């Protein structure tokens, strides 16, 4: 048996690719990984479509996608794969007719976020979901906007080995909030200027708080311009980092900012951030928006603070600090990670069933 993995970006953008690769290698299944090299980066272990995306000209972007489809279909025809794993709803829609004809019930569709393309091609997307063996989703909140007829399996955005390591080494740290100043950090991709600007507005130049942005992203230049023009003094920027550095970078963090913008164009209220898992892994409380999928988890496992309005931030942070119960919080982290581990076992079982199904 031979499997094709179709991924529409560079490998470094996806921590979850290796979940599938690990299972395939565990089952001794041969596979090829096809990627779209959008950043001009040489990466090992994949067959890349070398083409930088032109974001400024929509017509050229459309042509790029047509070329990528031709690249993929050419390799699929040439190598006669038994089954396919398709990453993103957009790529699934692009490859839809080919999948329906040659791989009905012989492909997994992996969806990690929402795209308006899914609404533009609603019927094709519904058929894409229905014809799949199963659809992997990174948040159960996605079921609010996904087609009702689908076999959905939760696949968390976290390395299961990190989860197991954390569970085997509890407690990772004793959180006491003894410092006078609360350090609130934003780590990972810095891409949500709207939410991050509101977050900064509530805590800027307040001596009770320190802020640090750790990572990179397209919102970073505008955020730096904002803090310079407004002379914000209680904020730092760290820049890009490697995954293995996260425990060190977060060792003095009191809370993690996971506030996000919620627009219909991104279905932000249904997302689960990678930072949510960092909160549980490293025993650091987090801050999330109310009325979101993340807020349900925070309330269920007692992982941090839920705010309905950004204006509530300063007082809610202080109240949380003054009433913090480390024992209850630590138990919540452990319970959440144990449930993630169970979900991963179910995900792995479904991938294995996909591989052995005729």
Classify the beta-strand content into a percent band: 15-25%
Task: Using the CA coordinates, give the radius of gyration.
Answer: 21 Å
Element string (H = helix, E = strand): EHEEHEHHEHHEEHEHEHEHEHEHEHH
Low-pLDDT runs of 5+ residues are none
Distance between the termini: 11 Å
Descriptive notes:
This protein has 358 residues and is of the alpha/beta class. Helix content is 42%, strand content 18%. The protein contains 14 helices and 13 strands. Strands 3-2-1-4-5-6-7 form a seven-stranded parallel sheet, with helices on both faces. A six-stranded parallel sheet has the order 10-9-8-11-12-13, with helices on both faces. Helix 7 (160-167) packs antiparallel against helix 14. The N and C termini lie close together (11 Å).
Please name the defining characteristics of this protein.
358 residues, alpha/beta, 7-stranded parallel sheet, 6-stranded parallel sheet, 14 helices, globular
Summary of the model, kept short:
This protein is 42% helix and 18% strand. The chain has 358 residues and is α/β, with parallel strands linked by helices. Strand 11 (255-257), helix 11 (274-281) and strand 12 (286-289) form a beta-alpha-beta unit.
Secondary-structure blueprint:
Elements: E1 2-7, H1 17-26, E2 30-37, E3 47-50, H2 58-79, E4 83-87, H3 89-94, H4 96-102, E5 107-111, H5 117-120, H6 122-131, E6 134-137, E7 152-154, H7 160-167, E8 182-189, H8 193-203, E9 209-216, H9 220-229, E10 235-237, H10 246-249, E11 255-257, H11 274-281, E12 286-289, H12 293-301, E13 304-307, H13 313-322, H14 326-356
Helix pairs in contact: 7-14, 8-9, 11-14
